What does this fold into?
Amino acid sequence: MARARSHLSIRQVAIVAVLAIILPSLVLTLVGLKLTLDLRTQLEQTLAEQYAVAARAKAQEVEIEVARLEATVKRKANQLPDAQIAPTLDQLATPPSIVEHIFLLDPAAPLESPRAMLHPRSPPAPQPIAEDILWTQPFPPVIRRFRDVRDPAAADALVQALRRYAERTDYAPARIRASQVVAATFFRLERYQEAIDEYSRLLRVHNVAGSSPSLAVLARYQIATARARLQQHTEALKELLDLYADLIDGSTRMADASRVAYFKSRCRDDAESLLDKPRVATPYSRRFQTLCAAEERQAARQTFLAYLRRYVLPRLELQAPSLRLDEPAFRHLWDEEFADTPYVIAYSAVRGPDGSRRILGFKLRLDYLRDHLLPKALATNRFGGHVAFELTDRNGQPVFGTSGGRFAAAERFPAIFKTWKLSVVERHPPPLRRLARYNVVLFPVVNALMILAIIIGVVITLRGTARELEFSQLKSDFVSNVSHELKTPLALIRMFAETLQMGRARSPEKIQEYYTIITRESERLTQLINNVLDFSRIEGGRKTYDLRLDDLADVVRDTLRAYSYELDKQQFTVDTQIEEVPETLLDRNAISLALLNLLSNAVKYSGDERHIRVACEARNGALVVEVADHGLGIDRTDLDKVFEKFYRARDEQVRATRGSGLGLAIVKHSIDAHGGTIAVESEKGKGSTFTVTLPVRKTLTDGKNPGR
It folds into this structure.
């Protein structure tokens, strides 16, 4: 009952600690955290509103600047004489400008008709020439048999045959065809100078540019290639750039657009390769860059004109009647599906020189917006350097700026760029946000540490109290067990002594038996008292050991002989495996007492399996003694505690057996004092094996010094 009251008291202390300290602290922490989070939420909302206002203002600022530039373009294009239309509008579209492609329409004519297009007017392109000579012009059999020969002699024969054929025939295309094959043969045989001469003859003598533009372009390209292979890099580059320029402006008069694109690509690639060669003059590099830019502008212009005719003009046809001359702002058409980049077309009505109404339109140059207007408009803000802007299109792809921070707010552009969104991004948290975050983190952390300290204190107190109560209970059990252990041998000694004193033992055998019992019980009593005294000395730090060179195997044999009576009485069989081992320093009495405790435990807890194994041997440079039984065994949860003082396993069968709880604690102390170790292996219901390992030492300085 005393133990039950103690546990109840501990529970009461724990409940009081939780109710009076921990729960109020938790409540205060939660209330404080709630207030801090509410304050942070309000701050977040305030900052988000401020950021949204800033994004809206910046978007309006950008569109106001774009509208100002559009008004400038409209003012310069107003009342333009016909002679000034092209130079003025081309000047407005010259980079850097927000105008990329510009056009001027006369709504008096249908907008989709060529008459309505006042600018740009397409210049008259050279009339393409139909190809009269095919590269696959057939030859007589006497010539065809020489085709694809690579032997120099055969090639010379082929060239001679072709030249004779050209002299005899009156058909001009056949002569041109023969000359082309001769040039190709020289080129294939790497006779490049002769190939150059033959291709030049095609251009000058036969004038193939007028009859077969494709063959003329091929001849010019082959001449440039041959000069490059003759290491005439400058001449080759000049030939390529001249051909590239003619292909761009259309003066080659080739009808097949695919062939034009092919030769443009070859000229561009070969020129880039030649420009990497040493000793190439800088003007050629500048000319090549100029031609590339011209080709890009030409392609972009053609693309825009095709887009204008196919998509824009049909829409303007519907909008034209509603356009007024007094309308100050431009209207805008958005198209994000025609090309990789959006097409933004601005258009408005302007006056002609006679006061008539015209339609001015242009494609906004988004590169100018991204590289000039946006950096200037978004470079500064009232929040400082910890805030930046990011512009994204309707698909969320970045147009300007990079995220690189925390998204804070976003606003769409109000008019011109309606599908774009301007976002505010925090590169670094502002001071107020950092303060709020600091409070949100600091407050619960401090309170959590305080509560943790309180919990740790309560737990330590409760654990200390529980250990003291448990230790007190163990001491009480120890006193009860020792008292019982003392009573039993004393009662037997007194009973048999009184029997002998009163002369009731008649035969010498009985008298000897009684003397033996008295002696055995007195030895048992002595062992118990020695255990208690040894434990007292150990606890007081007064226990000493008399270490002398001795034979451990002899100690084991003597201990077994001393305990043989008890083993025989309990009907135990002992399997001994005692080998000869080297002498070592040991306290004979202490080791004997330790072995007696191990044997006593084996007898007590063997149950019905009355078999014990005792072994002594030298193993790995040490002396090993094993005591094994086949009894109750020890639970895994108790293995680490069996060597603690007063500890007894929780198993009911173990507790039903009387014991002091000191034996194994004394054994461990004795073995540790000898510099050895003791270990136990056990399985519930199958027995236990205690293994004592002692070092071999001849002097106190060998190995680890024993505790004294």
The radius of gyration is 56 Å. Confidence is low (pLDDT under 50) at residues 1-8.
